[in-house]
C-alpha cells in the first residue's frame, strides 16, 4: 500500500554542500520564473475595473482562495487562452537561470492547471519564446514533484505534498504568501549563496 508524503514547513531536511558540486536543480515556472500573479492582477483590472483590485501580498498560495467572493472569476482568468503565454518574466529570472545552467544541470519543473488545455501548450510556448527551443527539452511537467529525481527543488509553495519522500532538498523562492515558513529561501539576486548553502549527499545516503 502506497503512503502519501507531505513535506511540511517544519520538517527542514536541507543538506549542506559546496557549490562546486554539479547539482541537478529543478526550477518551478509560475511565480518563480514567470510573473503569474502580476498578469492575474492586471487581467483582473482589465475585466473587472469596478471591483476591488487584487493585491500581490495575498496570504494564500492560491490567489483565488484569498478572495473567496471572487474565486470562480479569478480561476477562470488563469484558464483563458493566452494567459500563460502572456506572463512576463520575473526580474532577473531568465539571466539567473542561464547563469545557473552554466554551473548545474537545470530543469524547469512545473505543475499544470487541472484545466490544462491552454496551460500546458502555453507553458512550452513561453519557455521557447523567452529561453529558446532547446529549453523546451528541459521541461518536466507533473502534478507531483516528489516523483522527480533531483538535488534541489526551487519552488514557491509553502509546503510540498506528494506520493514519495523526495530525493531533492527544498529551497523556497521568496514570495509574500510563504514567509511564515522556515525553509531556506532565495531570490534571483541570491541564488548562488542559497545553492552554496545546500550540501548534496549521495543518493544512496538520502
The CATH class of the largest domain turns out to be Alpha Beta
Number of strands: 8
Morphology: globular
Q: Helicity range of the residues? A: 25-40%
Can you tell me the residue ranges where pLDDT is under 50 for at least 5 consecutive residues?
1-6, 8-19, 200-206
Can you say what the CATH homologous superfamily of the largest domain is? HAD superfamily/HAD-like
Q: How big is the Rg?
A: 17 Å
Average residue-wise pLDDT? 89
Major beta sheet, strand line-up: 4-3-2-5-7-8
**Main beta-sheet strand count, sense and barrel state:** 6 strands, parallel
Element-level helix/strand string: EEHHHHEHEEEEEH
Distance between the termini: 22 Å
Query: CATH topology of the largest domain, anyone?
Result: Rossmann fold
Secondary-structure blueprint:
Elements lengths: L4 E3 L16 E4 L8 H12 L15 H4 L4 H8 L14 H9 L3 E6 L5 H16 L7 E3 L10 E4 L4 E3 L6 E5 L11 E2 L4 H6 L10
Parallel strand pairs: 2-3, 2-5, 3-4, 5-7, 7-8
Antiparallel strand pairs: 1-6
Structure report:
- The chain is α/β, with parallel strands linked by helices and 206 residues long.
- It has two domains: 13-35 and 88-205, Rossmann fold, CATH 3.40.50.1000; 36-78, no CATH class.
- The chain is 27% helix and 15% strand.
- It is built from six helices and eight strands.
- It has helices spanning 36-47, 63-66, 71-78, 93-101, 116-131, 191-196, and strands at 5-7, 24-27, 105-110, 139-141, 152-155, 160-162, 169-173, 185-186.
- The strands form two sheets. A six-stranded parallel β-sheet has the order 4-3-2-5-7-8.
- 28% of the residues are buried.
Amino acid at each position: 500500500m502506497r503512503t502519501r508524503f507531505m513535506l511540511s514547513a517544519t520538517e527542514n531536511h536541507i543538506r549542506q554542500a559546496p557549490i562546486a558540486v554539479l547539482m541537478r536543480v529543478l526550477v518551478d515556472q509560475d511565480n518563480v520564473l514567470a510573473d503569474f500573479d502580476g498578469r492575474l492582477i492586471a487581467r483582473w483590472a482589465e475585466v473587472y475595473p469596478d471591483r476591488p483590485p487584487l493585491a500581490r501580498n495575498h496570504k494564500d498560495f492560491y490567489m483565488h482562495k484569498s478572495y473567496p467572493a471572487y474565486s470562480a472569476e479569478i480561476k477562470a482568468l488563469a484558464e483563458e487562452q493566452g494567459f500563460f503565454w502572456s506572463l512576463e518574466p520575473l526580474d532577473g529570472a531568465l539571466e539567473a537561470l542561464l547563469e545557473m545552467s552554466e554551473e548545474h544541470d537545470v530543469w524547469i519543473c512545473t505543475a499544470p492547471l487541472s484545466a490544462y488545455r491552454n496551460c500546458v501548450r502555453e507553458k512550452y510556448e513561453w519557455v521557447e519564446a523567452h529561453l529558446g527551443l532547446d529549453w523546451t527539452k528541459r521541461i518536466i511537467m507533473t502534478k507531483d514533484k516528489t516523483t522527480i529525481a533531483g538535488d534541489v527543488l526551487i519552488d514557491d509553495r509553502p509546503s510540498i505534498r506528494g506520493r514519495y519522500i523526495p530525493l531533492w532538498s527544498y529551497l523556497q523562492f521568496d514570495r509574500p504568501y510563504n514567509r511564515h515558513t522556515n525553509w531556506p529561501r532565495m531570490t534571483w539576486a541570491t541564488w548562488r549563496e542559497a545553492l552554496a548553502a545546500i550540501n548534496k549527499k549521495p543518493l544512496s545516503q538520502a
